Amino acid sequence: MQLFRLLPLTLALGAALCAPAQAQSLLELVESARGYDSAWKSAQAQLDAAARRADQARAGLLPSAGLTAGVSRTSTELSRPAVTFNGTTQSVGVSASQPLYRPANRIALEQGQRGIEVAQAQLDAATQDLLVRVSQAYFDVLAAQDTLTFVQAQKAAVSEQLAAAKRNFEVGTSTVTDSREAQARFDLVTAQEIAADNDLRVKKLALDQVTGITGAKPQPLALPLPLPSVQPDNVATWVQTAQDQQPGVRQAALALEVARLETRKAETGHRPTIDLQASYGIQRTPDGTVSAPGVNNRTNNASVGVALNLPLFAGFAVQNRVKETLALEQKAEADLETARRNVAQATRSAFFGVQSGMGQVKALEAAEQSSQSALDANKLGYQVGVRINIDVLNAQSQLYQTKRDLAQARYNVLLGNLKLRQAAGTLTQDDMAAINALLVK
């Protein structure tokens, strides 16, 4: 009799642990999301734009050349002596300039290179955020599936208990209270099943949205599950790594470097600029000139030299610009310190969250065994008349709630590991592959 009562739970759990047809692994959904997610594409485009912006800054140190050409028609009338002249002037010229000393342009190039590094840090942050978002949506679906499976298994067990209570009432071995208690619990579990089914639909839609795959079916975890431990098992090491590698800290550090370069560039406002300039031009007057009409004349002009430009006074604009950049430099220093503190706090919270989660998993595994034993004991006691129906119902509810909590705790530990690495700035595709190896093949 007890074997048949456990059969609905066994069948439900077996269905939950079997991978559905055409199920996708975590890595497959990550690759799909990488080509679909608009936030990641935006960061990638920002990196490309930063590289082109740096190339524009490099142009300030390279030579420039230009070509000019023109044709004009001139009509001239003189009263004394009476002369009327109509002539055409043709001209063409080429000029080139090579900066020799432009400190502001060189600093702008350094800022452009820092801009590439900032965009790369932003792309790294977007990549890690994408990995966490896909994993979160992936495990949310698995957790919702587990919840629905356990609720359906509990519903089957309560239905069986309700039928037993009704039979016992009909033969006079139990009171109507047993039937009503079982009916009330059955109605409650039915409502929970409806809510769990709706929650699963919502979680699936969220996974579809982040991956771009309609009807994505994530592969479940293989049980028993060996949860990965945190290495290194030292929160100070994780905090130090975060303060060195976390993309947000890197962006703040680069912003400080850019601010310092901006101060140096502002200080160049009093410095001279030196350019090497060269030009060559040809002017032709096929109709001659007023003084020599009818004479085809051609003039060639060539020049080469060095141009010096020394600012003397700009209405205190340079001095005030330097003061502004110094204030912005102080702001960047404060922002960097804020980023480091926030990252350190987030890393500590993530580290202790994973440690606590692993302890919770072990406790819930023990609680699952205890709850199963308690349910078996209450069923036996109900059969011999030392336990009432509500005791069995409560034991069933406790067992299934423990199973749901245990499944959720496992997912939380895996997600916590990923979020810890994200907080430290070290989350990579290899970390996703390690979790992917824990899935049902």
Keywords summarizing the entry:
441 residues; four-stranded antiparallel β-sheet; 4 strands; single chain; alpha+beta; Outer membrane efflux proteins (OEP); elongated; 14% strand
Structural commentary:
- Helix content is 67%, strand content 14%.
- α6 (235-245) packs antiparallel against α8.
- The two termini are 35 Å apart.
- The chain has a single domain, classed as Outer membrane efflux proteins (OEP).
- The longest helix has 69 residues, at 103-171.
- A 4-stranded antiparallel β-sheet has the order 1-2-3-4, with no helix packed on it.
- The chain is α+β, with helices and mostly antiparallel strands.
Q: What percent of the residues sit in helical stretches (DSSP H or I)?
A: 55-70%
Strand order of the largest sheet: 1-2-3-4
Secondary-structure-based class equals alpha+beta
Task: Encode the helix/strand succession as letters.
Answer: HHHEEHHHHEEHHH
According to CATH, the homologous superfamily is Outer membrane efflux proteins (OEP)
- Note the quaternary state here: single chain
Q: Report the sheet-strand fraction.
A: 5-15%
Low-confidence stretches: 1-20
Number of E-type strands: 4
Describe the largest sheet: 4 strands, antiparallel
Helix-strand blueprint:
Blueprint: H1 2-17, H2 26-34, H3 38-58, E1 64-78, E2 83-101, H4 103-171, H5 176-211, H6 235-245, H7 247-267, E3 273-285, E4 297-309, H8 317-384, H9 389-424, H10 429-436
Antiparallel strand pairs: 1-2, 2-3, 3-4
